[in-house]
Structure formats: C-alpha cells, structure tokens
Amino acid sequence: MPNYHIFTIGCQMNQAEAERLEGLFEQKGYLPVDVPEEADLVLLVSCAVRQSAEERITNRLAILKKLKAGRPSLRVALTGCMVSEDPLEMKRTFPMVDYFFPAGALPSFIDDLPGDILPNKPEVATHVPIIQGCDNFCSYCIVPYRRGRERSRPLQEIVAEVKTLVSRGSREVTLLGQNVNAYGHDLPDQPDLADLLVALDGVEGLYRLRFLTNHPKDMSRRLIDTMGRLASVCPTLNLPAQAGDNEVLSRMRRGYTIAEYRALVDDIRQSVPGIALTTDIIVGFPGETAPQFENTLKLIADLRFNAVHGAVYSPRPGTEAAEKFEDDVLKIEKERRLARLEELQTGIAAEINAFTLGSNVEVLVEEYVKGKWRGRDRHGKLVFFKSTRDLKGQLVTISITATGPWSLRGELTDADS
Ligand code: SAH
Ligand code: SF4
C-alpha cells in the first residue's frame, strides 16, 4: 500500500485542512508515515502569513527536491496560502512540486489514486471550516490575496458534517474561518453564525462548540447573546486586537478604535461571565513608535487575556503595508518588543491559571500521551492528569493540583475515579 506524509504549518484552518486531507488519503488506502523518506506522496500545507513560515516550506521543498533526485517516483503536492492563482508561475518557482491545489479544494489528482477504504476515526476535538477567504484587506495581511473572497458553506452541509463526525466519536467541534462573523452573508437565505450555532447546539452527543476567528469590528449583539445562552457553546473567544494604539490600528485598516475594542470586551464579559478571551498582536508594524508599543502593553495589562499570540511584523509582498510603508522598526527592536509582550503575558496567564488551583474543572479527554491523559476545560485550558482507565472522549471532573502559564495538572475526582 502507498505511504503518505503531511507537513503542516500555520493557522488552525491549515490544521483542519491537514485533517481533511488525512481522511481523503486514508480513504484511498494510503498509510501515514512520520518521515518523507518513507513516503510515496508528500503533502505540504503551507502558510504565507509571515516570511519565516514561507521559508520553512521552501526549505522543506529543497530537501524534497534532493529526495526526488534519488527517487523519481516520489510525488509532492503543495496547498495552503503559498499557492497563488498562476499555475505557470507556481511551476516555475517550485519545479519539484507535482501538484498544486488551493486550500479547501479537492486535489484533482486524488481521482487517479486507487482505493475505497473507510476513513479513520476522527479526533475527539475536531475542526470544521465554515467560511473560506476574507474580504477585509487589513493592510499587512496576505490572506485575502491567497485565499480569495469570502465563501460560506451551506448551513445544512455543515450540520450534516458535524453529525457524521459526532456519530464517529468527535465530541467537540471548532468552527473555523478567517472571519467567522461574516458567515452566511453570501448564502441565499443569509443565515448568520448565531443561526449556525443554534442549529448545532442540538446535535446529540456533541458536548462542546467553539469558533474562531472573530473580527472585533463584526461582533454582533445577536452572536454575543446567543453565545451566552447555548449550553454547548464554550465560554471562549479569540478576538484579535493586533495593536493597542489608534494610529497603528488605523494604518493596519482594522476598522475599530481602542475605545471600541475595550467597550466590546466589557460587553462580552458581562454577557458571558467568566469567558476566556485570547488575542493576536503584531509588534513592530511600520512606523510603530516606542510610546505606541507601550499602548499595546497597556491594553494587554488592562484586559488580561488568557492567551496572546504575538508576532513580529513581516512585510508581505503585494499587501498595502508592504507597498506603502517602510519596514522601519529594526529587527532587533521588533524582537525586543515581542519578548516584552511575551514576558508580560506569561505573568498574566500564570496568575489567571493559578486561580483554578483547588477547584474542579470539566475536562474533555482527548489523548493519552507519555503516561498522562490530556484534555481541555471549557475555557480551552490544557489539563493533564493520570488514570489507568480508558477515558478518551469522555467528560470528567478534575480537581486542579498544580498550575503554570501554559497548562494545569490535576486528579480525577472521586465521582469519576
Ligand atoms: N483573520 C484573523 C487572522 C489571520 S492571520 C484576524 O483577523 O486576526 C493570523 C495572525 O497572523 C494575525 O492575527 C496576525 O497577528 C498575524 N499576521 C498576519 N499578517 C502578518 C504579517 N504580515 N506579519 C506578522 N504577523 C502577521
Ligand atoms: Fe487577514 Fe485581516 Fe482578513 Fe484576518 S481579517 S485574514 S488579518 S485581512
């Protein structure tokens, strides 16, 4: 039987894409292998959001080129944000790649492969894309150029997919999109994300629903209220601020001010008590001054997010920021800013997590790794605990005995042990 190997980097859309491709290739009878040296087909799910991500893929491709020289039957497929719309240019740039296909598309070469085996069991906590593309054109971002305009999947199609996943063992579903708030505006009867959540809330056997990413400028009253009242929707939200300074936000073309962002956070925290908020921040955007960066630190210190995904600005050719603004913050200064942001956030996350010490949390058990069970609580926190029982896919109550900035540890409570 042929072997395949998948290499994935980037966002959760890419993780979901990799899971989908695994399903497709295993259905064709392909077996997963850990290294490209043992594979007949190598799939790369690429990211172009930062130059460093692109470089990791080009480095991989250089290795694959050498492998192919020694083993011409090896096939290489590339998908994700590095795939542009010009196939000729792609072939010129990456001659070692046999197949290119856009993210979310059915790879056309799959029809040439034999096989009809039943797919693997899905993960306990799985991802389902609901909308592809993005119409926002934030000035730094390449996603709208590479993933195209927003395209929503029909509501009933998503509900049917979730039902299938749940019937095969999934218990938690994260709905994905670059901007899930835009879900449905392009569909005939224009359902919105709240409608989709209501439709999924009733799926028997689905314990938990999450969704990301939400653009702050598009958070609706209806969505916030719906989150607060549906039992399966977890109290978590990723709400990327990107910067804590109005002037920077305006040049980023984010469409909100800091005052609006803070008011939104207040509103969400009132409507969904205890909600765990996370955010994304870019440091060293063109022209970002030291005081402007301090404003970002102040926002992070004030709002106390559960997690902050920080990144140094990376100019992406073709985007407005790369064409119009000089990338004038020195690399060393960008890195210094990122380190300060991360240091601040590590302290905050450690404090937030320390509050859970001694409390009981509901954990959905996902996996057994290195002698411990691993799962997440409803706020998305990682929890580790020991048990000799097979608890995969179950909800258990864990009493928290130790905490750190990135995860919690605990023990099964009497009721569960
Ligand atoms: N749709 C989401 C994010 C998509 S990209 C949103 O609106 O926030 C994921 C993250 O990568 C972004 O949140 C941003 O923080 C980061 N990012 C995007 N473009 C970048 C760039 N040119 N340089 C550095 N980080 C970038
Ligand atoms: Fe990029 Fe902005 Fe769209 Fe997010 S909302 S994918 S950052 S353009």
Provide an overview of this structure.
This protein is of the alpha/beta class and 417 residues long. It folds into three domains: 3-112, Response regulator (Rossmann fold, 3-Layer(aba) Sandwich), CATH 3.40.50; 125-354, Alpha-Beta Horseshoe (pyruvate-formate lyase- activating enzyme); 360-416, OB fold (Dihydrolipoamide Acetyltransferase, E2P) (Beta Barrel). It contains twelve helices and 18 strands. The strands form five sheets. A five-stranded parallel beta sheet has the order 2-1-3-4-5, with helices on both faces. β12, α10 and β13 form a beta-alpha-beta unit. α6 (193-201) packs parallel to α7 (221-229) and α10 (290-303) runs parallel beside α12. The chain is globular. The two termini are 42 Å apart. The model has no long low-confidence stretch (mean pLDDT 93). The structure holds S-adenosyl-L-homocysteine (SAH) and iron/sulfur cluster. S-adenosyl-L-homocysteine binds at residues 11, 49-50, 140-141, 143, 178-179, 213, 215, 240, 242, 280, 282, 311, 313-314, 316.
